[in-house]
Amino acid sequence: MRKDRIWKNVLEKFFISFTEFFLPELHKNIDFSKPIKFLDNELSKITQKSEGKNRASDKLVEVSLNDGTNRWVLVHIEVQDARKTDFAFRMFQYYYRIFDKFNKKIVAISIYTDDNGKFKPSEYNDTFFGTEINYKFNIYKVLDQKNNIVKLKESTNPFSLVILASLYFLESKKDENKRYNFKIELVKLLFKKGYTNQEIKELFDFIDILVKFKSEQLEIKYLEEVDKMAKTKEKPLIGSYNKMLIDRGSKNRDIEIILNGKKEGLSNEMLSKLTKLSIEEVENILKKKK
Length: 290
What we know:
By secondary structure, the chain is α/β, with parallel strands linked by helices. Helix content is about 55%, strand content about 15%. It contains 13 helices and seven strands. The chain has helices at about 1-15, 15-20, 25-30, 40-45, 85-100, 150-155, 160-170, 175-190, 195-210, 215-230, 240-265, 270-275, 280-290, and strands at about 35-40, 60-65, 70-80, 105-110, 125-130, 130-135, 140. The chain has a five-stranded mixed sheet with strand order 1-2-3-4-7, sandwiched between helices. A two-stranded antiparallel sheet has the order 5-6. Helix 5 links the parallel strand 3 (about 70-80) and strand 4. The longest helix is centred in the last third of the chain and has 24 residues, at about 240-265. The chain is elongated.
């Protein structure tokens, strides 16, 4: 799933910002002068044994603390329509398997980006004749951030934009025009926050893939607006694929103008002026549509 992959990408590219945003107390205790290690292979070995598939957004990360010890951070991003009754147990399962195999202390967090407001399990409990287990983990629910939109807009942490995009995606599922306005707002914020070109590129890709339009016309309109918005240094954001969509949209509009204009009795010369195509190109379009 593409949503999994884009979350994986921003987690890796902005991991320092990730801990600052979601795990501030841990962030204060990490020695960022030491390497950050992404343990995808180790996590894969663990999750292959569980019933759930290892999604690309699940991350296991090794960090060094200021006291010289190494600790592991388990990050789970729930991007599905989450109604899994065994979810908390699976988080516990990840924990005890990682601890048993590697004997490492683990900070775990689950980020819920789904549209089920009631789904946000944060602990797993089990009891059997005096033997009890209580496993708690950190959680972050995107839907709960509706009252924090102003704060998210003001923050310069890249994940404020990631969460805002995720929230806008949920709020515009049934309204393409609303989604268009949200997406334009997100890009304007992106250009205002003082990020580097590479950071802009990574976040632009996240927004572009997550907040997708069903309508090709809206997609083209959006890309044209972004092209006007972007400064010279940001122009490379519009890649070859996006340029192709814009060009294709322009051609489609030219064809529509020519065909409708011909029905209204306009001359080929007038159609040429309206579309800025040569008379020969206008004639070729009319021939193909006969």
